[in-house]
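Dear support,

I submitted the protein below through the web form. The confirmation email said the job was done, but the results page showed an empty box. After a refresh the structure appeared. I'm attaching both so you can tell me whether what I see now is the final result or a partial one.
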Amino acid sequence: AVGKSGYVRHDFSLPSSDNVLPLTLGQHVALCCLDNSDKVVQAEFYPYSERSEQGKFSILLPEGTNFVEDDNELGPDRAAFSKVLKTELEVGDEIAIKPGGVSLEYRGQYLPVKEMVFLCSGEDIVPVMEQVRAVLPEDSSSVQLVSVLWLCRNTKDFDIADTLLEAEYRKYPSKLAVTCVDDDIRNGKMEDNKDVVDAVPDFLPGTMAIVTGPRAFRRKAKQYLLNAGYPNDTICVME
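What the results page shows now:
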C-alpha cells in the first residue's frame, strides 16, 4: 500500500532500463492483456510514476478485491483490468502498452492561462500532481497561481500524494494553494461544504479549471463550477 492509504502501487518494467513512456502532459498509458479465458482486457490509466522515469512505470489501484466498488470508482474498463491484474496476472507476465488518450485541453478564449484550479477526488490526484510539477517552475508556463482542492472519503488516502504536494508547496509557496477535505461529496452538495466553497476561487479571465475523479464526482464538480460562474469552455474534465 501507499502509506496508510487504501491504494496499492503496481509497477511494470519496460523492455529496456533506459526506456521512457512517450507521454505528453495529461496523457494516459493504455494497458492490454489476455485474461485466463483468452479474452482481451484493456484500459487506460494515468501513470503514478513521473513521465521521465526510466525503465519502468507504475499505476495506482484500490487495494483488496471489492470489484463492485472498483467498478464504481474506476469505471468498467479499468475495473476489469484491475480484476485481472489482481487475480490472474503473475510477476513476470507480459502486457502490451501504448500511449493512450489525452484529456487535458483548454478550449476557452482567455489566453494566456494564468491560473489553474484543480478539483479532484481520491486517487485522481495522480494526474494533477504531474501537471502541478510541470507548470509551477519559473518560466515553464504562463501560470502564476495553482489551486488544488483534493477530496477523499478516508483521511488515510491523503497519503497518496500529501508529501509530494507539501514538497511542491515548500518550493513555490506563493504560487500553490492546497486544500484537502475529508469528504468525497457522495451524498451531499459541494455548495454545502464550506471548505469547498472557500477553496474554489472566483472565476477571472485566464483561469482554467480541471476536474478529475469518479464519474459521479466529475459531474457534481463541473456543475458546481458552472453554478459558480465558470464558463463551460474553461472547464476541462479529465476522464
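Response: this is the final, complete result; the empty box was a page-load delay. Strands lie at 7-13, 27-34, 40-45, 56-62, 96-102, 115-121, 145-151, 176-181, 207-212, 235-238.
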